[in-house]
Structure formats: C-alpha cells, structure tokens
Design a protein that fits this description.
This protein has 462 residues and is mainly beta. The chain is 9% helix and 36% strand. Strand 13 (184-191) and strand 14 (196-203) form a beta hairpin. The longest helix has 9 residues, at 59-67. The relative contact order is 0.12.
Length: 462
Amino acid sequence: MIAAYGNKINSTGDTFGYNNAFSCYFPIDDSPVHGLLYINHDAPDQQTHGDKADGHYSTSQLQRLLYNQGASIVEVYRDPMGVWTIDTGSAYARRITGLTPMELTGPARGTGSVRTAGTVQGTVANRSGVQTPWGTVLSGEGLYDDTCRDAGLNPAHYGWVIEVDPLALNSRVRKHTALGRFRHSGLAMALGNNNRLVVYMGDGSDSACLYKFVSKNSYQPGMGKGATEPLNEGTLYAADLENGNWIALSTQAVQKALRDHGFQPPAVLQRSKESLLELFQEDGDVYVHAYEAAMILGATRTDRIGDVNLHPASGAVYINVGSSPQHGNVHGYVAVLTEQNNDAEAGSFGYDIFTSGGPQSGFSSPGSGSFEGNGNLWLASEIPADKLNQGTATALKNNGLYMLSTSSQTVNTAVQFASAPAGAHFAAHSLSPDGRTMFVSLQRAGSAGPWPALVAVTGFVQ
C-alpha cells in the first residue's frame, strides 16, 4: 500500500485525499522506480466531513468536503526490496483541491453562462484522466452536483476538464471549456491525420453521451508544454451511434432546431423550447450546456459510461458502459468505435459491441479501463455495494480487476487478476514505464467498505 486516505504526503501537512481514482506516473530523470504519481480524488462521502446539523454543514465541514476532492501529487520510489514508498519531504508533493484557484480557458470564459468568470474556485469529483504527450494531466470533473449544492458553488464552474502540470510547482491549474461541461467519466487522446488533437470523453451520468473534441489548430511534438494552446479552440461533437455520425455542437445549430415549428424538445430534458432557447444565447453557451445541446441535435443517449480507452495499435475507441438495471442493462458491456479511415478527425464511424458483461464473460458493470502496449484490455468492475453477491451478480462475487485479450477474433472470458475487499471496487489502474508495477486505486463502494487506498502490485522478472 502506497497511501491511504488521510496519510501525510509532504512537510507542510497536506494529506492524501478521499476515494482516489485515475493515476499516472511521471518519471524523474527517466527512472521507472523514482517519479511523481498524480492521483485523482472522486467525490467523498460523509465519512470525511460528518453529518449535517439542521440541514447544513459547518464552515469546517465544508472545508473538509472540498479539500478531500481534487488530486494528490506525490513523489514515490521503489526501494531495493521492491517496496514503493512516498517521499514526504518532496518539494513536488502537493494537493489540488476544491479550494485551489483555477483559470478558465476557451470559449466559455467570461460568458454569461459562467457569470462572466475568468477564474473559479477549485475542482471537485475528479475521476477520469489522461496523460498528455507534452507532460501534463487532463482530469475530468464527474458527479459534481452534490458538492455544488452542499457548498453553495455555482454548478456552471464545474463539470469541466482541468489541466495540471505535476512538475511545475507554480503553474496555475486551468479548466478547458472547449472540451465541454458534463459529468466527465473517461478521457482518451489521439492525433488525427491532419495533426489535430482529438479528445474522446464519456459521461458518467445515468443518461449519458459520448463526446469528442477536435482542435482547430494542429499539434506539433516540438511545441512542448505550449501544446495546451490547441485545447483552447476547436469543435465539440456528440455521437449519433445509430447512424455512425459525429454531430457538431454549436449554439447556432441548437437555436435553429429549437425555432423549428415542428420540433419537440427531448422528454429527457424536461424543459420547454422557450426555456431551452434562454440557455443558448452566445457561442460559448453550447460548451456550458453540452448535454442539452447533444440531446437537442440528436445524439444517442447511453447508460453511464465508465471509461474510454484507445487501442494502442488500431486506435479504436473502447467504451466501458456500466450496468443500468432499470433499462434492462443488468451487467453492462464494452463497445468499440472505429473511425472512418482510422482517422480520429473523421466525421463518421463504425460501432459494435466488443463484449457483454455477465457470468458467461466473468465480469459485470465495467468501470475504469486501460490498455497494455500489447493490446490487452484491463477493466475493473463496479457492481454497486447493495448488489454484490446477490441476484444475478451472485456468481461474480466481489468486484474485481480483469484482463481481456483483444487480439483474438473470438472474445475470451475475462481473466481475473485481483479481487477487491467486500464493499469496495478498483476505481483505476495504471502502469509504471517498465511495465513491472501496476498502481491500483481502491475506492469505497459503500459506507461499510474499507478506507480508500492506492496500492502498488509489482511483478518480478524470474
């Protein structure tokens, strides 16, 4: 175990956050055994800040609520005995929290939908993430609603993708509004045939969409840390899975649809044409209200998306879709999206189901995922705590971490690598550069589960 909730991470007294999720490793001096770990912290529960008194949290409770979300950056090393340890004296070790000042970039900055804000307070509900080619982290804000309500925060300031540079101590964290605002769950990055940056994104809400962002400007590897520039401007798309098309989201297209006499707003939005038109006044509004725009323009609703990952050889997008029993989706599935001509910038795609969850496949309700360089897909199950070891999930037992081969034409049964303790699930996993260590985030699936922890599993060459 590298760290658990509440552990000290530096000399100033910062502590490891709650319900850790996505992690990634940054080597120091190109070392696979000495580097920085960036770890996201998902939304906490009442274990961190206590119950409300008279329906409200105290100031100190709200401080804890916001502090325990965001991210931890820790310096780690593997000693000669193979044990990974945190260096609590590190100058790099620090916290990114719901209290940290953030800069808005892109088309929604300064618009009426964000109350003309250029800077906002903090980041919350950080679950998904991706390591960029220029040495930073993109982290998606997920189920932010409860925190915003409890802390009195403006919801329009949350639900974005933030960018953090773990190796730059004084750099300001940015929220890239061009990537859209929704309940982010899953981030993957590709380069199109015209060298434009492409970011695939899932939505973790019960009524979700698949999105992608294509930058206006191209990316050149020599740009270094300045490569963040293409993330400031581009086109946000939502997927029409039935017809295999990417729908460009724009305020003008939404306004045109809503002003059509025969158009009826999707029932899922539970809003009139008039109230929806009020949301879309400026160009930047479509990024703030990305889900509403996607529904109005005909994107496909899916069940909650647990993660999106790019196959390292084919570039195909693998989408983990969690269970949704109320829709008859009892065990979830993994879908695969293949862009036309294998070009991430393409406007159309093919879509298929790679494998379905259930006892016959060996896993259920896929959440986080990742690929090895050889094309093996790793995924973690997220069976809800109140469904574990009962009903149709009985045979699957506790939540686990699994590997599936994508090289065979025939989908094989998942191979289970690890089993989570009762009342917990694995929220994310990543590899060290030499492939010998897997960093695994253990998260509570219910109030009776174990404390959240980050674990290193190391294999030794014989």
